């Protein structure tokens, strides 16, 4: 006998998780499609060189890498961004720009599993490649807002900033040389706190005064998006191309009436090198400790590893597993219901044909109907089956007619024919 | 520069493939859900021992197998059946029976790529575990029929047989000792033809007379399901438990009015050892050479590698990539349309805010709307963009009102306000 177990850091998705997960993914796909975004998919396995770059990552323990039977050095994708860059370089002539795509699928990282972190998880990425303008930035932000509102999430805020404004500020204090280290340190502010951040910044710059100035930049909060933006322009020497872009983006958000979900948060930098403009993270108002559930920004040149063509773009990634963990903690109704069917039909031996015919009729009305397949079972077992699957209604029939029982209230409704019973039926 | 290429036997899915693929998967999921089937998912990576059994498959070149960073012997799943068996053994107490599940996802096999065969492909499995009765067999068959009809496929036939009837027949000619070899040979009939099959059967049984009798059994076709069934009963010594089951299944199919899509085809045996009862394959009437696009059957004991509990069931697998290849060859309308949006809005510089507001209004009517993000582009470029994405309508606006152009017919409709233009709008 072999022990039925999954690998450390991996997990099965049972119906109670998989049903709401599919529901969430469908809603997101519907939003993306309504904006004219198209789906793509890429192979799970790629050449390691394609994923990590030449010579890069020899010692990268984070990825699942191996030699295939043909001796090729291959690896499982660890995000959807790198495969997308390769995909763009390969198919750009056919795809054309602007290209708006989404990609929802699994990625793998060999990191040490902790609470809420797994070695296999789902990312949901969407990008606009081609244009570099405020309209594209705003469209991605609008689509994020529409995604979160369509999921019925109660309270979320998008924290925006701009890499260029931060760079202008670093120039003004003569610290562009340390920008990578400073960006990475600032990115940790939420985790390590102000004091630790100040200490690290002082070490990097060798100047406590500069550390304080950086801290005051990234802590700027004047109570409104525009006031904070103006304050930051002040600190870093006036308006700039970067700050004008943020003004233009905000103006579009205002014109569509959704600006209140967005704040200017100069502590947002995103650790990754490839961002060049707008950057953002998303927090659930009631669960800030969860961290960002949707992050991204603008990049100048996504596919430079594979092509000489410049491919600027703007894009986001929703961490679906983290978002679902958050929704569960918030007891979101989106996760509450995972019923396998609306009606369970129970019948006696010999009535199989009838039961199945009735079931087909019910399905043709758009109602999900499960036939209980063991006609000799005791009612206790049948109730347990319905309860386990959260099926709300039980339908029985005899020569006298039909009985529909609401298993939550125990109310019964009787009718001589199925049609009249279904007429009043509404799925909750 | 790194060459942007995918591995041999792998492929990207571009929007023109991914849009119809997602549409097909949604339709199938809707059918499965309407029958009360629930989705599950399992990890892509498993312990090799779990997938191949103890000691088994040391030399199996067909699978992607490696040592992970923790030194574990792991492999990528090569089907959805083995992980399901492991899943059942692990979670059966929580799931309960009858358990009706579906699972649509990728699997990997390292076989040599040929036309239409890839190393990464999607399977779509659905099973009922628990009951062993005609009603369950029939429900799976009905759901297959509903799946194919909901996909709008023009002409398909389900070929049914029963392993037990074949075994009874082999008993009657005293050839149960060679049953595995005979089953595998018969399974190849469609590929290798009658003469070659007869030759192989004569080699296995050492008796040309027996080879002829086997051939006449598997070639029986009396023009109707019931007549063929009766003929086979005749050949193998009368009614049996197996043939009674087939009668009961057919009676249910008849009572729901779908029996005409099913034929009794005794040449169907399925090569795999674990089938014990009903077995079936599915062929597209206009494309028999494609092979079976949906196969499966009844098994006695799926999870015996991992648990002592008997878990009988019946289940099917749709080869989604093969089915899609067939639909493409048949020029199915299901694959024809992969438009990224219904309407493309074009605007001039300065009108971004307006364009985006109108787009939001259009989306709120359930119409997919793409905003062209480069206001300075020439119309020629915009038309090429719309054509490449199969977007049928172009919307422009000015102070005078709105113009909606059908890009296929070049018809234009004008209106002073957007509402009246949208009122008559129907998505094809």
Protein model, in words:
The structure is a homodimer of 428-residue chains. Chain A is α+β, with helices and mostly antiparallel strands. Chain A folds into two domains: 15-335, 2-Layer Sandwich (BirA Bifunctional Protein, domain 2); 343-423, 3-Layer(aba) Sandwich (Rossmann fold). Chain A contains 15 helices and 16 strands. Chain A has helices at 15-34, 48-52, 81-95, 134-150, 163-172, 179-187, 189-205, 208-218, 225-235, 241-255, 320-329, 333-336, 352-364, 379-388, 418-423, and strands at residues 38-39, 45-47, 65-67, 73-76, 99-108, 120-129, 156-162, 262-264, 275-284, 294-299, 313-319, 343-345, 369-371, 393-398, 401-406, 412-415. The first copy, chain A, has an eight-stranded mixed sheet. In chain A, a hairpin with a 2-residue loop joins strand 14 (393-398) and strand 15 (401-406). The longest helix of chain A has 20 residues, at 15-34. The first copy, chain A, is elongated. The two termini of chain A are 45 Å apart. At the A-B interface, helix 1, strand 1, strand 2, helix 3 and strand 5 of A face helix 1, strand 1, strand 2, helix 3 and strand 5 of B.
Spell out the key features of this protein.
BirA Bifunctional Protein, domain 2; homodimer; 2 domains; 8-stranded mixed β-sheet; 40% helix; elongated; alpha+beta; 5-stranded mixed β-sheet; 15 helices; Rossmann fold; 428 residues
């Amino acid at each position: 006998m072999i022990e039925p177990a999954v690998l450390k850091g991996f997990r099965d998705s049972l119906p109670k998780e998989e049903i709401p997960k599919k529901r969430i993914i469908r809603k997101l796909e519907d939003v993306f499609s309504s904006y004219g975004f198209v789906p793509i998919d890429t192979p799970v396995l790629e050449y390691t060189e394609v994923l990590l770059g030449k010579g890069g990552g020899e010692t990268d323990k984070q990825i699942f890498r191996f030699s295939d039977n043909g001796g090729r050095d291959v690896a499982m994708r660890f995000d959807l961004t790198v495969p997308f860059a390769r995909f763009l370089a390969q198919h750009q002539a056919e795809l054309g720009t602007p290209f708006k795509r989404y990609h929802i699928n699994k990625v793998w990282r060999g990191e040490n599993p902790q609470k809420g972190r797994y070695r296999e998880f789902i990312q949901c990425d969407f990008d606009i490649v081609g244009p570099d303008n405020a309209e594209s930035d705003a469209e991605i932000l609008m689509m994020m807002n529409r995604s979160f509102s369509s999921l019925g999430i109660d309270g979320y805020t998008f924290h925006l900033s701009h890499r260029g404004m931060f760079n202008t500020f670093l120039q003004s204090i003569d610290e562009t040389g340390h920008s990578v280290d400073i960006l990475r340190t600032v990115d940790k502010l939420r985790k390590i706190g102000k004091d630790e951040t100040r200490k690290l910044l002082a070490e990097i710059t060798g100047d406590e005064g500069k550390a304080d100035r950086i801290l005051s930049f990234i802590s700027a909060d004047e109570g409104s998006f525009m006031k904070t933006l103006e304050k930051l322009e002040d600190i870093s020497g006036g308006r700039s191309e970067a700050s004008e872009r943020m003004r233009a983006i905000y103006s579009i958000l205002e014109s569509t009436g959704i600006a209140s979900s967005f704040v200017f948060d100069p502590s947002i930098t995103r650790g990754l090198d490839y961002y060049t403009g707008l950057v953002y993270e998303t927090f659930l108002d009631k669960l800030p400790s969860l961290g960002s559930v949707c992050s991204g920004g603008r990049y100048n040149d996504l596919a430079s590893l594979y092509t000489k063509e410049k491919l600027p773009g703007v894009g986001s990634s929703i961490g679906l597993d983290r978002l679902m963990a958050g929704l569960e903690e918030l007891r979101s109704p989106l996760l509450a219901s995972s019923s396998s069917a609306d009606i369970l039909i129970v019948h006696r031996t010999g009535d199989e044909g009838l039961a199945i015919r009735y079931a087909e009729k019910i399905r043709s009305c758009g109602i999900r109907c499960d036939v209980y397949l063991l006609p000799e079972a005791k009612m206790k077992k049948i109730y347990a089956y319905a309860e386990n699957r959260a099926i709300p209604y039980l339908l029985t029939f005899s020569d006298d007619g039909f009985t529909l029982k609401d298993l939550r209230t125990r109310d019964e409704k009787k009718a001589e024919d199925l049609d009249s019973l279904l007429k009043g039926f509404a799925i909750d």
